[in-house]
Amino acid sequence: PPPPRPLWTRPDSRLGPARCREPESVSRMDVEGGRKSEGGGSGFDVENLMFGSVPCAFRTVGGASYAYDPTGFAEVPNSEKEREAAVKKYKPLTAEEYGEGYEGLQLPAMPTTRLQVKKSSDVSSWPEILRKPLMKVPLDSQHDLKGFACGVRSAIVKVDGQWYRLKGCGNNADGFPIRINSFNREFRGCMFPDTAARELHMSSVVSKVLKPLGIKGANESLGWYEYDAFAQDKYVEKKGNPPSWTLTKGKEYTLPKILRCCSLFKINGDRRLDCHVLNGLELLLPRLCQKTNMKAVLDRFSPDRAGLADGKPQPTGEVIAYSFEIFWGMSMEGKFPKPGEGDSSALKVLCDLASGQAKTRCLDETSPSFPKKSILPEGKGDEKLWISYEPSNPKNVEMLHTKNPVEAGDGGYPTLPKPEHWEKVWADSESVLQKFYSSEDRKDLLPYLYYRFGYECGMIQRAMTDNGISWGTYQDPLGLHCNAHANNLVLIAEDAKEHNDTFLAPLDLDMSFKEENFIFSYYSMDGKEIKRATKKDDQMWNTYLRIEAVGFMKTLAADAGGSTGVQNVSPLPKEMLPLKIALRDTMVCAFWDAYSNIDARIKADPKLRKPAYALLRMALIMTNGKIA
Predict the structure, then answer these.
(1) pLDDT score recorded for residue 36
(2) What pLDDT shows up at residue 215?
(3) What is the C-alpha separation between 13 and 5, in angstroms, rounded?
(4) Which of 46, 64, 220, 222 has the most Cβ atoms closer than 10 angstroms to its Cβ?
(5) How many whole angstroms separate alpha carbon 609 and alpha carbon 277?
(6) Which residue in 203, 259, 222 sits closest to 67, CA to CA?
(7) Nearest to 363 by CA among 416, 284, 427
(8) CA neighbor of 506 nearest in space, from 206, 276, 164, 68
(9) Pairing outcome for strands 178-180 and 232-239
């Protein structure tokens, strides 16, 4: 007999008969989610690397579907009436206004006036399987479609040769549970009318801003689902010792007055810059740079760098968080962050491996072999690995990823890729790199990649700043938010079209807003309360943009406390930490070059694209099981 229907999926005639369409990306999946390789056996291919390797399932459920039409989206005027309506969202719902069961529920609130949306129900241009609302369900349950998980509340699927992202299609495979926070409650796993509309609209706006720079957006807006409410009894609470977020059961709820939504996009990539690309590259360092002279790397640092005398240069994140953030912030007080302005002298101690890169090979890279036992070439898989110089044993569940050193058996210890899944793709990439590294045109790829990554990030942030757009930096009762971080960029596919040999594309714009609709010039946060300012603060917008730029730099710098969306975990042998720091230094220097409108010192080189993507494929293999 078929597995039982999940408790949260209502028996409803609109669900249709149980069937499973497996699009071309998963049409030959075996029970482990792999694809049959051309030579037989089970394995993943390059598309799995670029778009997904953790399978998930969807089922058609009740609700409505709407197409994104940019002519039907408009920002309302920034009037006092609209500002008051926006401020009201900062407070949890009450039983008096909404009814029993709604009390304490907090909906997303951004410091911006609303979008006015004219709905279009014409989704005839969509693939048929996507025209009715889909939701993630357990793989072993009845389902209509298979795809890949790409986030706790997101998934991707390939239909008719095109990849799509569904953002807000369920909290893993558990529907939309309610998370119990210390002072409010919130739905998890979904979007809401405001956030769905905002992401669809701002993705289109930002793509237009970046197009003249030859940078693609990660998402092309398609539309959204509005789900019918259904009965659930699932909650997310902190349990255990140390406490961690745990799925529990409790009183059943439906709460139809809160509309749960999912945004749909065509996509140009999925693997995130931090947790997939940078962490993967850094896990490759012991093999890729086994011939590197670490003394030569240390010699590239400024003699003024703290810790250098002991061979332990101060981590990049500390330089940014302890020096640059203070000096630049103070010198820019009350000013708009214009290119090149402000005291950035703290950046002078950063190492720049890109300097002179055209003439020298300071790392002497070699093509990495497949890691079957350890990330170390001669390792056994039981080595102590380090994410920083100082030991750390945190008890707070939110900081467990900072345990140092990391030992075999720890949650943060590298999980090696399965040879039966990835060895063929690795061998193809290794062949490309061996040919490149033995040619007369050989160069070190890491300085090139880290510089280009940083420069593209700086270009994106500069363009958004100059066009009066915040990625999503503001305060609310939960604290300070900054959506400008290294995991909100994806690596675009190698064969992507319409770009200037760039690597990255931005996404996650559901919290973004424009200066003309910004309300925090009129209000301010006082603890967990939002209050009207005594007078309009015309500098508040500038203040948040400075916070945004520095916050972005901190995540590129691998600052452990830079963002909850970026963990920067790639443990290494302790002696290789200076190399990781030098690479992160290089990326931050490049960001600042672009943000300051300084011409790139390493230009995009079409000749390096093929070997660069060969190396990037290896990096993605190292992190293939991670979900952002």
Answers:
(1) 34
(2) 95
(3) 14
(4) 222
(5) 15
(6) 222
(7) 284
(8) 206
(9) parallel
| C-alpha–C-alpha distance, residues 117 and 75, integer Å | 9
Position 356 scores a pLDDT of 64
The rounded distance, in Å, linking the Cα atoms of 64 and 226 is 5
Q: Is the separation of the CB atoms in 215 and 594 below 8 Å?
A: no
Q: pLDDT digit string (tens) for 448-458?
A: 999 999 999 99
Q: Which two tokens stand for residue 103?
A: 């009390």
Name 369's Cβ contacts closer than 8 Å, sequence gap at least 6: 287, 377, 430
CA distances 512 to 97, 201, 408, 464, 482, Å, are 28, 10, 40, 10, 10
DSSP 8-state assignment for residue 266: E
Q: Decide: residue 201, CB within 10 A, 0-12 exposed, 13-18 middle, 19+ buried.
A: buried
- Which amino acid, one-letter code, is at 522? Y
The H or E element containing residue 328 is helix 325-331
pLDDT for the residue numbered 44: 77
List C-alpha distances in Å: 443 to 358, 437, 614: 8, 7, 14
CA distance 484 to 501: 22
> CA dihedral defined by 195, 198, 201, 205, rounded to 10 degrees?
-130
**510 and 195 Cβ atoms separated by less than 8 Å:** yes
Residue count of the chain: 628
Rg (CA), the chain: 24
Which of 483, 460, 50 is closest to 217 using CA atoms? 460
**Distance between CA atoms of residues 91 and 129, nearest Å:** 38
For the chain, which ranges sit under pLDDT 50? 1-42, 358
Question: Can you state the percent helix, strand and coil of the chain, rounding each to 5?
Answer: 30, 20, 45
Distance (Å, rounded) from C-alpha 273 to C-alpha 344? 25
In this prediction, residue 438 carries a pLDDT of: 95
CA 91 to chain centre: 28
pLDDT in tens, 571-614: 999 999 999 999 999 999 999 999 999 999 999 999 999 999 99
Burial class (CB in 10 A: 0-12, 13-18, 19+), 416: middle
Buried b (16+ CB within 10 A) or exposed e, 574-588: eebbbbbbbbbbbbb
* CA distance linking residue 58 with residue 37, whole number of Å: 25
Tokens standing for 429? 């990439």
Q: How many CB atoms lie within 10 A of CB 257?
A: 13
What pLDDT score was predicted for residue 360? 61
One-letter amino acid at 348 equals: K
